[in-house]
Specification:
Helices cover 34% and strands 22% of the residues. It is α+β, with helices and mostly antiparallel strands. Among the domains are: 67 residues, ATP-grasp fold, A domain (Dna Ligase, domain 1, 2-Layer Sandwich); 159 residues, D-amino Acid Aminotransferase, Chain A, domain 1 (2-Layer Sandwich). It starts with 6 loop residues before the first strand and ends in a 9-residue tail after the last helix. This is ATP-grasp domain-containing protein.
Length: 372
């Protein structure tokens, strides 16, 4: 709204607190995977209200990206999306396809086994070294149906238990080698690439903490100079001809120092506030890139700026309990934080709404913050 752009948010119950933000209109919608017709109707009405000027549609979840890609031809053309009929968003969301594309592009990946059925699982016996990593090919679908995302597995029994739970729901998966190193070895590149192959936004970052620990979502991240990470990301995106916003993550091997691709998110990451904190003006560049507005050269990123998401309080508490880390070192890890996610002094209403929502979840015996 500060630049005159009206914001209309469509969200499910988990993220209803965003509607409390100043200048934001919108509504709580039913589950997008079960009720796509309701979302299509809402987008059609928004397109009509927007007239010839139309608008841009930005995805904040994997389920929304999947919906936009599958239904692009039914969404009014006046609503611009990065998701298109080329299927590349869907391809990169799928872990097995992502690793195949990365290998073809010359991007280093962990050793991978694609498990499509119980026969493939049985064939893994004796091939996998433990510990290893199990990932559903479509993580957001697995979390909804089974409640499981990325899992570190320590034995054949552990592997077979988790894999069978996914296969019983007709969900395929990948098993990958474990890349050794702490969570701070996870580096990222966030970019916007247009159809001409130009990068309208590009900045690097590293993880400091994540929640849940080790295999969760980044809760404290820092802008950093990571040229080899940016080069890895460009190699992959240029190879597949990807157009849009993405957040690519790789891990630096603790022994060799080499980077191994871990995943890529093809929608707005929850920690996108780091793009503002480090000075590259990511919010405007994202809107302008999709709206077709002219953009000046990107400002240089300021390294050492941090974004803290509210689950970092849980991640920090876990570090105090399980690792030999002092309170002073923990407090120092927050130095340089410029963006606190939902907690903003400019507008405290979303934070208040979130607190009320999580108190209700606690009262109902649910785990607050799940999926954030």
């Amino acid at each position: 709204m500060r630049r005159g752009v009206a914001v209309h948010a469509l969200t499910d119950e988990r993220y209803a607190y965003v509607l409390a933000a100043r200048g934001v209109r919108g509504r709580v919608m039913p589950d997008i995977r079960r009720n796509p017709h309701v979302w299509l109707q809402e987008l059609s009405e928004l397109a009509t209200a927007g007239g010839e000027e139309g608008g841009v549609v930005l995805s904040g979840s994997d389920a929304a990206t999947e919906f936009l890609a599958h239904n692009r031809t039914e969404i009014p053309g006046s609503l611009r999306t990065f998701e298109s009929k080329d299927g590349m968003h869907l391809a990169l969301m799928n872990k097995s396809e992502l690793y195949r594309q990365a290998t073809a592009a010359g991007v280093r990946t962990p050793g991978m086994w694609h498990v499509r059925n119980h026969e493939d699982l049985v064939a893994l016996d004796g091939q996998v070294a433990f510990p290893c990593i199990l990932k559903p090919s479509l993580g957001h679908v697995a979390k909804e149906l089974v409640g499981v995302g990325t899992v570190r597995v320590e034995s054949d029994d552990h592997l077979f238990t988790h894999a069978r739970a996914l296969l019983d729901h007709d969900l395929d998966l990948v098993v990958t080698e474990l890349v050794p190193g702490p969570e701070t070895a996870l580096l990222g590149a966030v970019t916007i690439r247009n159809a001409n192959g130009d990068y309208l936004l590009e900045y690097g970052r590293r993880k400091i903490r994540q929640w849940p620990p080790d295999y969760g979502t980044g809760s404290l991240l820092e802008s950093a100079d990571v040229p080899d990470m940016l080069a890895l990301n460009r190699r992959l995106l240029d190879h597949v001809g990807y157009v849009g916003l993405s957040s690519c993550e790789a891990k630096r091997h603790a022994v060799t120092g080499e980077l191994y691709l871990i995943e890529i998110n093809v929608r707005m990451p929850a920690n996108y506030g780091l793009s503002q904190a480090c000075g590259v003006d990511g919010a405007w560049r994202l809107y302008a890139a999709l709206a077709g507005l002219p953009l000046d050269p990107q400002p240089a990123q300021v390294n050492g700026r941090k974004v803290m998401m509210h689950p970092d309080l849980l991640a920090a508490a876990a570090q105090l309990r399980s690792r030999p880390r002092s309170l002073g070192a923990l407090l120092a890890s927050w130095r340089g934080t410029r963006d606190f996610g939902v907690f903003s002094l400019r507008d405290l209403r979303p934070a208040v709404a979130l607190a009320r929502q999580e108190l209700r979840e606690l009262g109902a015996g649910q785990v607050p913050g799940r999926g954030v």
